[in-house]
Amino acid sequence: MQLDVNEMRRTSIEYEKLECVDDKFTFYYDESNNIRKLHLTSKGLNVEKACNFVLAGIVHKGEYHSADFDSLKKSLCLQKSAKEIKLKHIGKGSFDRILTSEKLNILLKWILDNDFYIHYFSLNVLYWSIVDIVDSIIENLNVVERQFFIQSHMSIKSDLYKVIVNNEALFLEKLREFEYPNIKSDKVKEFSGFLVGFVKRNSKALSEDRRYLLTKFMESAEDSTELFFVMNEKDHILISDFFIYYLRNTCLFKNSKHVFDEEKEIEVIFNEYDLVDQGRIINNYSFVKSEEVLEVQLSDVMAGLFAKYSIFLSDTSNDQIKAIKSSLNQRQLVNLKLIENLIDKSDAVSRGFFFHCVSEDEYLRNNYFMHNQTCI
Predict the structure, then answer these.
(1) What whole-number percentage of the chain has pLDDT above 90?
(2) Containing structural domain, residue 6
(3) pLDDT tens per residue, range 171-194
(4) Which of these, 55, 131, 166, 315, has the minimum number of CB atoms within 10 Å of its CB?
């Protein structure tokens, strides 16, 4: 089967106004919180905690680099028994705890000094699993209502997610009863009624105006006869695999090389497709054993670091975020600034290096904590 890389990437380039996507880079990848599948069970989800899936790593311009990895390994003073460089060798604990690491300081400076950049993708898997509810309701609105709610769809999705998290166990139980995301036609009205009642009972954490908007939006679905994006799918399967996220950069940066850590299930899916660029089959990706490729090992550290950061943003309240930020010691502040510098340096090359699918709270907390924006 063929996949046209230009069709796959066109919308992202035009909508996000991405630059330098045709330049030649070499991307290295590793993943963190790779649950491989997400589905509903009698206990809620098939995982104990639905942490963000993170696919991240380092990247450099062109096909080759001249960085001295031996000097890095020597500076990090790794134990001889360590076969690979992993996040646990750099720092342990929560994200703010890892910021105290001297080895993190050494690594970040080395990456900056050796003309590497970073890239990462972060997916809040539960948030992603419920946004189709909002998109389905928008599809059923009249033209005027649709125009209004499309402008507010990100805040509505985030508010629905916040309401769900407030009573997650009950919501997931009901999703399973309705065989979500495969709502049957004769159950659409009942499901819509459940959504309205659930929002009304569990939205106290929202401000009054946002609670009103979310409730009115949900009430607009009560007369629906279909919910397009949550019908005709497989019962209970929220995410069948993460292939599309591995595919994103291979299409977006079609002239680059993409070196992934070995992931058999994803490799099998890749093998089902030919990537085609203007009628020509391209082979711009490979899967390798991380112990054989130091760049992938550093990507493991980056993926683990940003996975820790995603948990920090998701699980820490606004007040706690502010308190932690104000109490950071000098080393933590320096390391946080190095991460910010690395993000800014990479973003200046191409904003396509970064992609998030997260709730509004996570987005705003990131802007506050990492980029010093007064937004929470």
Answers:
(1) 94
(2) 2-37+45-125+241-313+333-357
(3) 999 999 999 999 999 999 999 999
(4) 315
